Amino acid sequence: MDSEWLNFLLSQLRLVNYENEYETMLLLFDKPLPRKLVCKSAQDLLESLKRNENYEFSLKDKQTRIREAANLRKEGNDCMAEKEKPSKMLKACRLYTDAIFTAIDVDVDNVELSLGYANRALALQCFGYYQQAYDDCECALEIGYPKKLYPKIICRQAYCALQLKNAELLQKHLNVLENMHLNENFRRQVQELKANLLKLQDQTEKTLENVESILKNRDSQEIVNAFGEIGRYMRAKRLIKQNELIFAERAAALAPIGSAVQLCNHCAKTSFIPIPCQHCRGRVVYCSLACFKAHKNIHLYECSAYQMQLFAHVGIAHLALRTILDNGLLTILDLLRNKQTTEEIWTSLTDGGDVWSNQTVAYSESLRMVSHLKKMTLEDVKVFAAVSHLIVVYLSRYTSFFDLLSSKHRFDCNWELIVAALILKHIGQSMVNGHVCTVIRPKLFEHYTLTEYHLLNEDLWEKPWHLRRGYLHRFAYIDDVATLNLPYTSICNHSCLPLFQPKFSGRIISAYAMRDIKDREEITNCYTQHCRTERRQTRQEILEKSYHFVCKCGECMRPEGDDDVNQFHQYRCDNEKCRHVFVPQTTFKWWRGKTSNGLQNINVLCDVCGSRQKLEWFYDYQKLLTSLNSRLTRLRLYKLYQSLDEYLLAFNSCKAFMASKAVQEIFKFFNNGSLNEEDYENLTRMIKYSLEYEISTSGSRCISYICEMTYLWDIIASGKWKYEHKDMNSVFNESLIVLDDEMFLIFSNYYKDYLVKS
């Protein structure tokens, strides 16, 4: 955030005592002169952001970008000449995707962009991504595909509809084709499609799982309104069995973390083939045409902000804005129609107001979420208020949002003040109730650009959703991809011992019981590190700083204190005169606390003799990691790892980290023939240790366990280690439950393709 602008705004916001969001924002709207000054300041900042981005984007003129897109498309066409090779088809898809991103934002009638979509559609169809190919055809037609080529693209759509077993769509496209003047080749294709349509119409249609019924099924829990410190909470109203789905919730709103181009901005999928917005330079993408259209009424008010990269500067305020735009304020205008003043509208939206209390309105769930702005410092509140004001100025100057609000309401009200106060309110709520969507993502060792998507990586796939043997370990990485507004999940109070395991699949969270939950027992969530991974004092400090409460859960009140976590951090003193077992009093994961001198300033002290540990074994390990392409280096690493039991006892966190990191580095050579049986034996030993450590600390139903498991599955798939089918079936049925739907499909196919058969 621009410091000069922020300092000026903070000087104008004379907040002495925080009362509520409305009164705070009123300080920036109330007096004419300060109001003009702060608006002018915000407008200048927005114009500056816009100029900077426009300058960067204009470094290449439109004709240059069109030529580059055409050249990329030609490279893709060259790959398609060898379309019998799956890797060539995917490389073509990747090149066509680059062509699409290069050609966007050129003209309204963009022929080059339409050709990019049309070419990618053929490549996707040939590889077997039929729905994505169908969507690309539709995009090509909407953007400006040459009319003389319509028979080609519509035949392509009809073929995809056939493969998708969609008789209605197939009939629709055949009707269009029959009214066209077609050559002999196209007439023959139409006859073949007609014959297949008759067969398709005889088949029984599959029924889709009713997702809505799952989301509404909350028969195992109830919400209790309690007085005092605890407030609302969730409890079981019957016995909930271990691994049972407790509840599922669709996020009321989501906002990307970091770049928005690796996440569908509507449904939050991360495994997809992108359809970018044409107008904000490809900074917002969607997984399908359906999501593109469903998000249109939200992106209408965000497109200009993405053009100037505004959301890169406002942090959690983006989620606050999305809470208003995504089935938020516009859905309750009818309930506000009789409110004659700005104050009346605000009162109805706050504690006890008629809209706030309405149990049938989805947005009211968000309005009722807890906020701790009153417990925050005035300086923090002022910063959040400044950001809220900036977003309102953006909406006023660059969108028609306030024109729409005014046209829908018959009384003259200050909608800018109301929206600014709502943004501030939702910021406060998101600070203590926002959830992070954490998923498994692939990490490719080669350098790749933001416009490359793992479904199009030619090194990974045999066919759609089926990986090549030995490539599952590429999916051994965890990433935070979005912040979510989950009003129902937010009702759960905190406990330092997790009670349910969340599964994030797109914008739907599913909560699975980690143990049996008794009738009338409170259902709690864990907001931070749990009691097996972090000390009580550290947990307490995090909770008090971020969530503004002192935790009094069962784990924090136990007299045993930190015994649960200390068992994973036992060291034997390397002082020959001592050799006692101790638990470090410094930060547990000291190996992550790097300074300008590496780890040289880290003090790990024995609490018996006071000796500073030399940690020579760890420094030797770090050096070995840099040259693991050498077989002799790997042998030295294995020998060092086997000697760690002298210093690291039981299931030790540091040893688990060293095992995991070593496996990760050695697997860079897994598919190039460098490793031998001795390597596989040692790798398996380290992987099994990491897995046992994960089970001991977090259980087998967590994505960190699954990440470690990918390496073992690749070794099994390559025939380098034998296992019991019974054990593997148990892992498959229990652990993978927390994967998102697309990732589950990838892992499930890998299991069936290579492990069941091995």
Helix content: 40-55%
The main β sheet shows up as: 3 strands, antiparallel
**CATH architecture grouping of the domain at 568-755:** Alpha Horseshoe
End-to-end distance, in Å? 55 Å
Question: Radius of gyration in whole Å, from Cα?
Answer: 29 Å
Q: Assign the structural class, choosing from mainly alpha, mainly beta, alpha/beta, alpha+beta, or little secondary structure.
A: mainly alpha
Number of strands: 14
Low-confidence stretches: 204-209
Which overall shape is indicated by the principal axes computed on the Cα atoms?
globular
- Oligomeric description of these chains: single chain
Strand content is 5-15%
Mean pLDDT: 91
Number of DSSP helical runs: 32
CATH topology of the domain at 568-755: Serine Threonine Protein Phosphatase 5, Tetratricopeptide repeat
CATH class assignment of the domain at 568-755: Mainly Alpha
Order of strands across the main sheet: 3-12-11
InterPro entries: SET-MYND_domain_protein (IPR052097), SET_dom (IPR001214), SET_dom_sf (IPR046341), TPR-like_helical_dom_sf (IPR011990)
GO cellular component, one term: nucleus
GO molecular function: histone deacetylase binding; N-methyltransferase activity; protein methyltransferase activity; S-adenosylmethionine-dependent methyltransferase activity
Domain SET: 212-528
